[in-house]
Design goal:
This is Esterase family protein. The protein starts with a helix and ends with a helix. The chain has an 8-stranded mixed sheet with strand order 1-2-4-3-5-6-7-8, with helices on both faces. The protein has 274 residues and is of the alpha/beta class. Helix 1 (4-10) packs across helix 9 (250-272) and helix 3 runs parallel beside helix 9 (250-272). It contains 9 helices and 8 strands. It is globular.
Amino acid sequence: MVNKMFFSILLLIGCVLGVKAAQVDTVSVYSEAMKKNIKVVVIEPEVSKEKETPVLYLLHGYSGKYSDWVLKAPHITELADQFGITIVCPDGGFGSWYWDIENDANYQYETFVSNELVSYIDKNYSVIADRAYRGITGLSMGGHGALYLALRNQDVYSVVGSTAGGVDFRPFPDNWQIKDRLGEYAQNKDAWEDHTVINMLHLYKPNSLEIWVDCGKQDFFYGVNEALHQKMNYLNIPHRYLVMPGAHKWDYWNRSIAYQMAYFGEVFNGRTTK
């Protein structure tokens, strides 16, 4: 549940006069693992000219691309300024689910995002090169990807979010090219089980990750997100969970990213003041 401190931070969204001072750049980052350049949008808040900032990796959904967030949720630049967070939006390929696929050089997106891209951003931008100030989140396929990458790379990220994430795709065996990456479910059940987030909670290390999950009540992923929430409760994994009216659409994600940015701001600012 969202606590009073979080709401007090969220209220700032309505109080700050929006002056778009954040700088938005599109860069090409070379992936040695995939032998190709990958487009990345980087949103630098105004404060990054004065000091190093926390950084948030923000992932797109299935059939999306690196520019989705800045084009379809343009207030993301104001949120970057408001909370003083550098936002990095990598291209995750078409139906990659942000996995490394064995023996497929075109799909090494875990290595790219959590290794190659993090190293590039740390070296080339005014960000705090410390996992305590590095987070990751995303929508739909990107929500799954954020949780998947954070659980597998807890030495890289300290806070993770997901909005309308495909946190258990087993109920959808013919959708979103998952079988193109993992094979048909009937013949490759173990691979599907190993790659779905709801089955990966055993990887969580106590006090290692701050976790946020939200989903729209009318979203086709609502049921699996509710199941993830219940399983985290059962396993005593601390997390924030928010349900709001909304379907699997950008009008919901435009609202939810404001809540998520307030949450990430709360986490990072709490660490700054310690």
